[in-house]
Q: What sequence folds into this?
């Protein structure tokens, strides 16, 4: 077995026992990137190998291994990284080099984690397939003709292709859980407010949350602990103590109450996926959990509400890209309005333009009440649905997506593509922690199961996910990228 | 509901986007179908529902009034497309 | 048939709050630094940055609200105001839309002896934009430069009701508001530095008509004089149009005051009307303001001008007019208070402050805080007048010397040998001399022309280089001339 194939906790174990070094692990990861990156295309930027190895040696020299110390990872390319190109997969930021790092990244750096590169994504996180990247689409490691999901598609594909040991992504309407599901890895979106958003380029501020991609649940718990916590730079990060999430990983879920929402098994979910998730629920029952059907009656309204709220916020978050202080500028314009319009139109892709237009419309005078305000009210109803169920249940389980990964270029109707997020969006609307773990395959493509928890109860979903993982082998199956 | 080309043009100007004629037609059609979908929300009566803006029940998040050094000028200006006299240079306003 | 018109004025005042740091980041607010040296990624609107609210801003806003008799609602929030402009870093301004920190309120003004209460509609917190520097004129310059030092400076926008009906009232309102902001310690209110800015909404309607006329908003009023003149100009413009039956030519628009041409000018471009698309800022949790906090702020509130004015009238016996002038700034009140504690003639003190002191400060463009005359030195001088050591006329010269050099009056008098001649033995020979040499004046005086006396006193003062005690000279002359 190559080092790059191992999980974070296996590698950390070896590091602590001095059986390997961060330098060796890093070399191994680089050799893997060399092997498969041409096929998978996860990275927008791979950091210069010598620079990374130097960092790895520094962490070796520190002699103290804990959490992510010495472990190579990748970042969705919307995490600002001081001195390192941060593009958001957009021509707008094709040359943008931040002067500050995001808080989540600083926390990984404090523990001397090893950042090897910046990962592909849908442009400014707007998309569900990583096809809206201005640069190139990323391929699904299970089938290179298929997309990896999105918007954090590069982060999911890189972990599944063993190009990094773990990665960070962001999730506004499913952008971690959906690609995790399509690529067959663990993906967790924490409670809104759990991880600082400072330094993460915003898509929709009230929905965005930073999260983790990993090879298994234990790794996820370790990384989540590292990046969580209150940050004075983010007023919406919450000052609640961060538990050691690994203490939840005891496999004991006897008496845990699991609800599965009936509405999440309608909505065009494929038969294979339904079967896989029901089978998983059986497994939970076998393990001693109490599994019951529940109802989240406003589920079907989450998506239309989301596609008003998220674009509305995005339309103003994206306004700062005006060609004045950073980013692309069309220099031919001889007046400021043309400069704004041309700079933005030249460098934003269609999906970004579409959402800016949609959001601008939803907020504009005469439509605010009918669209934006209405959506905020529906958001309340959706959050209330969850509150009600969580009075009696510990966690909620559903499919992560209604289908498995699409072929690249298959979808050109934006609305049809938005439907992909139908099972993940409600979780963002309610600000809850949500997670996707592998629970089966359909025609050789992974199926994801979504676990949803109460606010700040990431421990509960990690606990359930771990118990499931310990009693199944889905997470151990890896795609054959035809290189060995 | 169908968005007119004029509405698309108005929104594009508000959003400072320049669209060609094909884009205007495409967006008019696509935005119309998304808004049609959004109109489903009207199936719900929300008269007495409080809009949900901030999901977290937190208030009064403050910072103390203590100065910290800003970012060095060369650094903060290093990403600027066009500069003069250490200021961002922009074409005429009117 | 000649119709009477009346003007309706409301003011929007932006006061820069006196904090060390900006409203949403820790950059300094110091004035006058090199361009783009007090900036960070947050106030420069860089991707990934988030605002964090400065607590002091909220405190100062509440303090202002209390001073203006406003309601401080239990709940308020921040909203984004969206528009593109090169000096607006994020292309939205964080402001407050429907739930501001201060609701309602009033302040009382007095113009030409009549008192009036001007309503305050609201006051809200917001961030300032950066500064756009044009080479030459904004309409002709091929490019402009953006300095973001100001970007994110905390502002309180105070919106009055349209309760004013003349330029004089508007000016008085702004003066009074400025005094309140200064006393409450919430703003420096330096109009030249832009820490107090004022926009005026002006409309004109036939007397007695209920609904308001079409209003225009005048921007760029950076002095009291500009405010007055611009309102006068604009009101006249509206009135003329209405009188000519061209009322429809008054369009609701923003106009700017051209200081050089002394006229208002339309700022409309062919651009679409603005649609600011206000909505709650998701990056900033709302505020819940508890009564205890308000109480705490109330208890630490400095003396406000209204209260001080009352004190000067009641306790010191100052005329209301004097009291209102002295209480225009905390500095002049402190100066007065410094004098009155060791000198009981309050009116004399206020005369000196409102007269010579103000004149010298204005002539030399000096703030009272930088003035070399202290309350103690003024009181010393006043006592020397009372003791007959110097004349009032001499005092004026001495005072100017004190102003320029900061020396004590005693020192100046000694250095210049400016001692008042108050003994009869020295004066009588001089007077006799003058009587002898001015038979005509003596005759005039005796025939009842009182004016003649003044001419002779003048001659005495001339002969003594102004050192003769004028009261004594008068008395002696009368004696010598036999009444
Ligand atoms: Mg304002
Ligand atoms: Zn700053």
A:
């Amino acid at each position: 077995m190559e080092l790059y194939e191992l999980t974070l906790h296996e590698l950390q174990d070896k590091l602590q026992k001095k059986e390997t070094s961060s330098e060796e692990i890093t070399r191994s990861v680089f050799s893997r990137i060399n092997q498969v990156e041409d096929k998978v295309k996860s990275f927008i930027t791979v950091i210069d190998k010598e620079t990374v190895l130097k960092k790895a040696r520094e962490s070796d020299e520190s002699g103290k291994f804990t959490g992510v110390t010495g472990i190579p990872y990748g970042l969705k390319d919307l995490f600002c990284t001081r001195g390192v190109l941060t593009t958001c997969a957009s021509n707008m930021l094709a040359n943008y080099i931040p002067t500050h790092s995001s808080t989540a990244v600083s926390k990984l750096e404090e523990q001397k984690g090893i950042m090897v590169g910046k990962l592909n994504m849908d442009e400014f996180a707007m998309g569900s397939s990583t096809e809206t990247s201005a640069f190139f689409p990323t391929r699904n490691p299970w089938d290179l003709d298929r997309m990896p999901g999105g918007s954090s598609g590069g982060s999911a594909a890189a972990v599944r292709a063993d190009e990094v040991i773990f990665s960070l992504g962001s999730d506004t309407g499913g952008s971690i859980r959906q690609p995790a599901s399509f690529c067959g890895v663990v993906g967790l979106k924490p409670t809104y407010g759990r991880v600082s958003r400072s330094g993460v380029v915003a898509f929709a501020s009230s929905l965005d949350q930073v999260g983790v991609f990993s090879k298994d649940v234990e790794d996820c718990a370790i990384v989540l602990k590292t990046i969580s916590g209150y940050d004075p730079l983010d007023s919406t990060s919450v000052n609640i103590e961060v538990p050691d999430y690994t203490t939840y990983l005891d496999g004991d879920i006897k008496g845990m109450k699991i609800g599965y929402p009936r509405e999440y098994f309608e909505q065009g979910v494929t038969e294979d996926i339904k079967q896989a998730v029901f089978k998983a629920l059986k497994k939970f029952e076998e393990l001693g959990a109490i599994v019951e059907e529940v109802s989240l009656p406003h589920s079907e309204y989450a998506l239309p509400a989301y596609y008003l709220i998220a674009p509305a916020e995005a339309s103003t978050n994206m306004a700062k890209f005006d060609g004045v202080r950073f980013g692309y500028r069309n220099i031919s314009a001889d007046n400021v309005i043309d400069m704004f319009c041309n700079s933005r139109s030249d460098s934003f892709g269609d999906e970004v333009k579409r959402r800016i237009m949609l959001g601008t419309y939803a907020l504009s005078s005469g439509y605010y009440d009918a669209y934006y305000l209405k959506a905020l009210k529906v958001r309340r109803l959706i959050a209330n649905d969850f509150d009600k169920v969580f009075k009696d249940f510990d966690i909620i389980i559903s499919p992560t997506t209604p289908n498995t990964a699409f072929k690249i270029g298959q979808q050109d109707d934006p609305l049809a593509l938005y439907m992909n997020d139908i099972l993940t969006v409600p979780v963002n609307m309610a600000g809850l922690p949500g997670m996707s773990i592998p629970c089966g395959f359909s025609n050789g493509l992974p199926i994801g199961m979504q676990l949803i928890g109460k606010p700040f109860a990431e421990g509960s979903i990690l606990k359930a996910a771990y118990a499931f993982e310990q009693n199944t082998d889905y997470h151990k199956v890896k795609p054959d990228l035809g290189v060995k | 509901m169908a968005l007119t080309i004029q509405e698309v043009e108005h929104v594009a100007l508000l959003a400072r986007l320049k669209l060609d004629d094909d884009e205007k037609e495409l967006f008019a059609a696509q935005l119309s179908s998304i808004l049609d979908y959004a109109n489903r929300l009207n199936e719900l009566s929300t008269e007495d529902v409080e809009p949900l803006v901030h999901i977290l029940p937190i208030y009064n998040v403050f910072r103390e009034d203590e100065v910290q050094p800003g970012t060095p000028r060369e650094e903060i200006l290093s990403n600027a497309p066009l500069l003069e006299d250490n200021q961002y240079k922009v074409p005429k306003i009117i | 048939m000649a119709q009477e018109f009346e003007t309706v004025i409301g003011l929007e005042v932006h006061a820069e709050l006196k904090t060390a740091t900006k409203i949403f980041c820790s950059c300094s607010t110091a004035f006058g630094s090199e361009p783009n040296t007090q900036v960070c990624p947050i106030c420069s609107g860089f991707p990934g940055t988030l605002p964090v609210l400065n607590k002091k801003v909220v405190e100062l806003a509440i303090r202002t609200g209390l001073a203006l008799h406003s309601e401080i609602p239990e709940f308020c929030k921040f909203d984004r105001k969206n528009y593109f402009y090169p000096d607006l870093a994020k292309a939205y301004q964080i402001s407050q839309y429907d739930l501001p920190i201060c609701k309602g309120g009033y302040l009382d003004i007095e113009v030409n002896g009549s008192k009036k209460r001007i309503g305050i509609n609201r006051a809200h917190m917001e961030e300032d934009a950066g500064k756009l520097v044009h080479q030459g004129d904004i309409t002709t310059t091929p490019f402009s430069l953006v300095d973001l030092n100001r970007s994110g400076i905390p502002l309180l926008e105070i919106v009055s009701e349209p309760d004013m009906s003349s330029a004089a009232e508007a000016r008085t309102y702004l003066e009074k508001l400025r005094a309140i902001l200064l006393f409450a310690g919430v703003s420096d209110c330096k109009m030249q530095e832009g820490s107090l800015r004022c926009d005026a909404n002006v409309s004109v309607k036939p007397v007695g008509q209920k609904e308001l006329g079409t209003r225009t908003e005048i921007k760029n009023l950076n002095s009291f004089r500009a405010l007055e003149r611009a309102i006068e100009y604009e009101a006249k413009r509206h009135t003329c149009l209405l009188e000519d039956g061209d009322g429809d030519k008054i369009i609701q628009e923003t106009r700017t005051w051209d200081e050089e041409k002394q006229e208002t000018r339309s700022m409309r471009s062919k651009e679409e009307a603005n649609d600011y698309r206000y909505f709650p800022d998701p990056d900033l949790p709302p505020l819940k303001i508890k009564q205890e906090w308000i109480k705490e702020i109330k208890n630490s509130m400095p003396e406000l001008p209204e209260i001080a004015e009352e004190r000067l009238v009641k306790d010191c016996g100052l005329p209301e007019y004097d009291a209102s002038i002295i209480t225009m700034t905390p500095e002049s009140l402190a100066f007065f208070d410094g004098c009155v504690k060791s000198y009981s003639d309050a009116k004399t003190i206020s005369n000196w402050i409102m007269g010579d002191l103000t004149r010298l400060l204005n002539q030399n463009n000096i703030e009272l805080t930088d003035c070399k005359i202290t309350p103690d030195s003024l009181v010393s001088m006043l006592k020397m007048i009372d003791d007959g050591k110097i004349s009032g006329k001499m005092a004026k010269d001495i005072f100017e010397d004190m102003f320029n050099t900061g020396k004590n009056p005693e020192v100046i008098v000694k250095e210049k040998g400016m001692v008042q001649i108050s003994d009869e033995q020295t004066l009588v020979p001089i007077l006799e001399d003058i009587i002898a040499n001015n038979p005509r004046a003596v005759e005039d005086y005796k025939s009842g022309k009182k004016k003649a006396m003044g001419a002779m006193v003048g001659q005495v003062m001339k002969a003594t280089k102004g050192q003769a005690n004028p009261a004594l000279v008068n008395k002696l002359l009368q004696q010598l001339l036999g009444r």
User: Anything to note?
Assistant: Residues 3-255 of chain A form a domain with the Amidase signature (AS) enzymes fold (CATH 3.90.1300.10). The pocket of magnesium ion (ligand 1) is lined by residues C 95, 126, 157 (CB under 6 Å). Chain A is about 40% helix and 15% strand.
